[in-house]
Protein: S-adenosyl-L-methionine-dependent methyltransferase
Organism: Aristolochia fimbriata
Amino acid sequence: MGSVSLKIGDGTARFKRASVCSSALNLVMLFSVLTTNLFALYAFTSPQHSTRPSPHKNISVISEHVSLILREIDSSQRKLAQMEKELLGFEIIDTSKPNVPTELKLFLQNNPLPLGKDSKTGITEMVSSVGHSCAGSMELLAQYMNYKPGGPCPDDSSLAQKLILRGCEPLPRRRCLTKTIPKVGLSRSPLSLWEPVSDKILSWSGFGCKNSACHNAKNSGADFDLVGNGYEKQKWVKPRGKNDFLADDVLALGGGGIRIGFDIGGDSGHFAAVMAVKNVTIITSTLNPNAPYSEFIAARGLFPLFITPNQRFPFSDGVLDLVHTSKLSDGAPVEKLEFLMFDIDRVLRVGGLFWLDNYYCVDDESKKTLTRLIEKFGYKKLRWVVGEKADSSRSGKSQVYLSAVLQKSVRL
Ligand SMILES: *[C@@H]1O[C@H](CO)[C@@H](O)[C@H](O)[C@H]1NC(C)=O
Ligand SMILES: *[C@@H]1O[C@H](CO)[C@@H](O)[C@H](O)[C@H]1NC(C)=O
């Protein structure tokens, strides 16, 4: 499978970790509340306090005790906050630590603008951004930022991806030169869309497979095969199952105004290629989980975007005509799904379409949850098909798929 199964897998794993963390957090909180209360109980019920205050146990002794208790509460609260920070991973990169590479320090350093405050934006400093979760992978990050400035970059694209999948997104910039591969034999669009991509113009370094044939054989989707069975080429073009909408039909639902869009987790860019023939420009988000997907998409003359679905989409509000995906973070806590859906809603323009394409629901409950969530947005349901497919791997059980085309309407 393509990039996304990996991404989603990782996402889910992290959500699982988060829930483990939150129960750990609950335990810590419970423990802290109990100890604080027990301490207070002890302080007020221990013999010298339970008896009537004798003349020498005067008010200042009691107030001393009270302030001791308050200090104890204060310190447990601080400890708790620290634990919460660590468990949730909201650390910040402390560049004063000894193991931080110089290049990272230099990159993160804020510098005052040479001409003072910028009158248009009001900013006074040049800042650099890096994912806050990078602090949780400092060892890997240090490895990533350890290179000779101006020299060749280490051959470490898998390290970069590992960091991104751990939430270190965006990565810091580097001052090194990446390996170059001559891109020979690129053809013009639209010819390039379905022409075989030569293995020689892709970088297979760091991957198990060293060519497309191996990759296609290992991944039954044959997603780097643009000629072979032609199956992918017919997707969205020739009628198949009732869950498979045709590109032309969906574009017609949009009343002709569908020109630019975003395919979240679009593997090797087939959707963008089908749409390109219809003069619709699609940006495909993908990582390079086990093959150079981004390069492959680019070689087809399509636009790859190297981000996970976990970060805020790099588009301004209300600009896209279409958002297409078959993968959301299924099985994740509903809040995670909400953050994703709200961001999809944010980037869609009024009248724009959200095309949920053969979305696999792990169970009926997850389908209901998603349905409730989608309905909250008050989109016009232009298409809504729930289909079941026999599960070939697990005997007997059928799988539930949801396909929908939803139109964003004006909210007052
Ligand atoms: C109260 O107790 C403190 C210390 O035990 C002592 O210094 C102080 O003189 C006492 N005051 C009265 C009014 O007894
Ligand atoms: C796409 O645009 C080209 C050039 O403007 C035009 O010739 C062609 O008919 C268009 N294709 C579709 C499907 O609209």
Observations:
- Residues 278-279 surround 2-acetamido-2-deoxy-beta-D-glucopyranose (ligand 2) (CB under 6 Å).
- The CA atoms of residues 383 and 405 lie 5 Å apart.
